[in-house]
Amino acid sequence: MSELVTGEAVALELLPAKFPSRALAVLLDLAAATVAYVAVTMVLVVTTSSLDSAAQAALGIATFLLVPIGVPIAVETLSHGRSLGKMALGLRVVRDDGGPIRFRHALVRGAIGVVEIVMTFGTVASIASLVSARGRRLGDVFAGTLVVRERIPVAQTGLIAPPPPHLAQRFAGLDLSAVPDGLWLAVRQYLTRMRQLDPGVSGEMAQRLAVDLAARTGAPLPADLPPAVFLAAVVHERQSRESRQAFGADGSAPGGSPSGVRAGAERDAEAGDPSVHRAATPPVPPRSSAEPPAAPPRREQPGERPATGFAPPA
């Protein structure tokens, strides 16, 4: 990743194009320019056969300057840094500050490209790209441009791995109520994509997130844990709390009593086991002397009970 600073002091992290992709894009551009130049030359030879040699030479020079050089410059200017080869490989030419190029940038790149690519068969451009830290050839250096990748392959993001067993209950008493949702989202995105980042960038990002998370929880940042492990442990603790709140401590329903025990008691009650009735019926608390005596249960008359067709056993 290459960090570019814009005029508004905004740091941009762009992925410079590697030498093989740039070389293949240049080959595609040269092949397209060669085909177009040969086609235009054949048309001019057929249509200008009646002209004298001086006019034919002038048309040949103009064709060489316009087709292999002028057309690529116009295409890069109008497409904001995307030639035919760069479109095929997902590359783009941008300025040093990350903005789109203009005509002067494309003109400088094209003019110097004639020398370092066409006249030297790409030797000078290859050496300059291999020596440069960001893969820039001489045309990019003089024009103040950079070739970057637009299509970055997206790798599969895995789930957040649980922390080690000895850290499972270490942050059980941590206060997570003051942590905003935006910070949780940033931590989760970092943990799922930290293997795709540069090690230096990943370490700095983990340190910043860990410091921010520790400040929101009011607890000091553990010195014996790496920042990424601390983030994973705190996220695991938050997920565990949400699971206990939603499903209960022992996998029971939100009502409090385990559904399996309740269903088993109901099945036994329907089977007519009196012992289960006694076990399932909660004990009656002792009545104090100050409380008034409870009214005796009212006996229903035979005519008041609805006819259910069920006859109790004798």
Fold and architecture overview:
With 314 residues, this protein is mainly α. Helices cover 53% and strands 6% of the residues. The protein has 11 helices and 4 strands; from the N terminus they run E-E-H-H-H-E-H-H-H-E-H-H-H-H-H. It has helices at residues 19-47, 53-78, 84-89, 103-119, 123-131, 138-143, 181-193, 199-217, 227-247, 259-271, 274-280, and strands at residues 2-5, 11-14, 91-95, 145-149. The longest helix is centred in the first third of the chain and has 29 residues, at 19-47.
- Write down the overall mean pLDDT: 74
From the helix content, strand content and strand pairing, which structural class follows? mainly alpha
Main-sheet strand order equals 1-2
Could you give the order of the helices and strands? Answer: EEHHHEHHHEHHHHH
Summed up, the helix count is 11
Low-confidence stretches: 1-12, 154-158, 251-282, 305-310
Helicity, as a percent range: 40-55%
Largest sheet descriptor: 2 strands, antiparallel
Q: What is the rounded Rg?
A: 39 Å
Number of strands: 4
State the shape.
rod-shaped
Strand proportion, as a percent range, falls in: 5-15%
Structure characteristics:
314 residues, disordered N terminus, 4 strands, two-stranded antiparallel ribbon, mainly alpha
Structure described in brief:
Helix content is about 55%, strand content about 5%. It has about 325 residues and is mainly alpha-helical.
Strand and helix layout:
Layout: E1 2-5, E2 11-14, H1 19-47, H2 53-78, H3 84-89, E3 91-95, H4 103-119, H5 123-131, H6 138-143, E4 145-149, H7 181-193, H8 199-217, H9 227-247, H10 259-271, H11 274-280
